[in-house]
């Protein structure tokens, strides 16, 4: 049972890679009264929101908003565009890619799951040339969609989506490109239109700094065309009725009104700061955290420095150390939540989230909690990661620092 007496003093450090901490500004915006979702004020909010949200996806096309977690938006992407028995080429980058593949199978699709052998797939980004090679073999064009995860939250590895687009184009294959950027959006550079993505899937509780509960599909014209012919059953998730109602700023059913207030505030914050500044802030935090992990002498899950995630870092435990025991000790003693190892990585690593509403000092506190917990768990550390990160953060000013 949930222990409601557990209210330690001070703020909890929610350093999992989603849900990420929700800024007070957003919590306040969400506390406003729920209004009539068919009334004129709501319509005005809806129209403004649906227009503004496209900037974060970098698209001129429509973005559908669902009152659902990211998993719902995964399902929406597949069932709006595909028909029973369709082949789908999916790439194994980690646990989330694996779950999406399982969903495709349950929906009656035929996913083909490719990736690097053994554990390597979970330590590198998508290898676009493997997708290219597979599409070249598909001379009958049976593959209807290519599905990849942009920021694999289970490992801390991003993938080069532009390279996947180039690989598909090089073959002239007509498959749709679907990308999960549930944990990448608004933290890592993402460009729906420029990268020629047909459906982008995202969620609220990671880079957008909102509570869980809304999710997104950004659509290309080609995806909308595909949805007119696709035969998997769909009703709640169907784009056509939502797009129709959205024209006037409404939804066919009751939308998540207060989360939409929060989304409006989140978009104001992100767009005022400027997306490039937001991305630079995440890259810098990620670099500081990696300095700490390297100083400890521990391994980073991602093996390719070109695709280190700006959102989170996976810290691999030495042989014989159970990462979950370390993580639980840190939670109990220091009121700090870290991400657990998922799927194949269970017990082998923990994940440090460095996304959204953080700053240098929340990350220093996080690293201190990690360093104390690792030492208390008997993990031998080569040197102080805390000192290494302090050095990094003090020597590398953020791009928007107001003074020297
Ligand atoms: C969080 C996450 C999901 C799952 O989203 P839910 O909101 O938990 O349904 C899927 N993919 C990735 C990459 C994620 O980070």
Automatic annotation (TrEMBL):
Transmembrane segments: none annotated. Gene3D superfamilies: Aspartate Aminotransferase, domain 1, Type I PLP-dependent aspartate aminotransferase-like (Major domain). One of its GO terms (biological process) is glycine biosynthetic process, by transamination of glyoxylate. InterPro entries: Aminotrans_V_dom (IPR000192), PyrdxlP-dep_Trfase (IPR015424), PyrdxlP-dep_Trfase_major (IPR015421), PyrdxlP-dep_Trfase_small (IPR015422), SP_NH2Trfase/AEP_transaminase (IPR024169). Its cofactor is pyridoxal 5'-phosphate. Substrate binds at residue 351. The modification N6-(pyridoxal phosphate)lysine is found at residue 206. It holds the Pfam family Aminotran_5. Keywords: Aminotransferase, Pyridoxal phosphate, Transferase. GO terms for molecular function: alanine-glyoxylate transaminase activity; L-serine-pyruvate transaminase activity. Residues 36-297 form the Aminotransferase class V domain. Belongs to the class-V pyridoxal-phosphate-dependent aminotransferase family. This is Serine--glyoxylate aminotransferase. It comes from Halomonas huangheensis.
């Amino acid at each position: 049972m949930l222990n409601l007496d557990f209210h330690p003093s001070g703020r909890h450090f929610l350093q999992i890679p989603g849900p990420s901490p929700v800024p007070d500004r957003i919590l306040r915006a969400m506390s406003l009264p729920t209004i009539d979702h068919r009334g004129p004020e709501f319509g005005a909010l809806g129209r403004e929101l649906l227009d503004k949200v496209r900037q974060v996806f970098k698209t001129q096309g429509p973005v559908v908003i669902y009152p659902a977690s990211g998993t719902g938006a995964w399902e929406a992407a597949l069932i709006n565009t595909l028909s029973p028995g369709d082949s789908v080429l999916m790439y194994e980058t980690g646990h989330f890619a694996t779950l999406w593949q399982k969903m495709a199978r349950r929906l009656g699709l035929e996913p083909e799951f490719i990736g690097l052998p053994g554990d390597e797939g979970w330590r590198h980004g998508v290898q676009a040339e493997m997708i290219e090679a597979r599409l070249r073999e598909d001379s009958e064009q049976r593959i209807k969609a290519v599905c990849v995860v942009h920021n694999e939250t289970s490992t801390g590895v991003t993938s080069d989506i532009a390279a996947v687009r180039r690989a598909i184009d090089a073959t002239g294959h007509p498959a749709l490109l679907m990308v999960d950027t549930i944990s990448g959006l608004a933290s890592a550079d993402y460009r729906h239109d420029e990268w020629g993505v047909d459906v982008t899937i995202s969620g609220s509780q990671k880079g957008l700094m909102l509570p869980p509960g809304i999710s997104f599909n950004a659509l290309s014209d080609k995806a909308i065309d595909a949805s007119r012919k696709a035969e998997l059953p769909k009703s709640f998730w169907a784009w056509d009725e939502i797009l129709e109602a959205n024209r006037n700023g409404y939804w066919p059913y009751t939308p998540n009104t207060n989360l939409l207030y929060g989304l409006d505030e989140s978009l104001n914050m992100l767009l005022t700061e400027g997306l490039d500044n937001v991305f630079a802030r995440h890259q810098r935090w990620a670099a500081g955290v990696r300095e700490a992990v390297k100083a400890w002498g521990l391994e980073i899950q991602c093996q390719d420095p070109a695709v280190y995630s700006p959102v989170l870092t996976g810290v691999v435990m030495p042989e014989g150390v159970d990462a979950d025991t370390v993580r639980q000790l840190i939670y109990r003693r220091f009121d700090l939540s870290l991400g657990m190892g998922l799927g194949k990585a269970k017990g082998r690593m923990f994940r440090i989230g460095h996304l959204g509403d953080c700053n240098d000092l929340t990350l220093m506190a996080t690293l201190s909690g990690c360093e104390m917990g690792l030492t208390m768990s008997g993990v031998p550390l080569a040197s102080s990661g805390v000192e290494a990160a302090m050095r990094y953060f003090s020597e590398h000013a953020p791009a928007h620092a107001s003074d020297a």
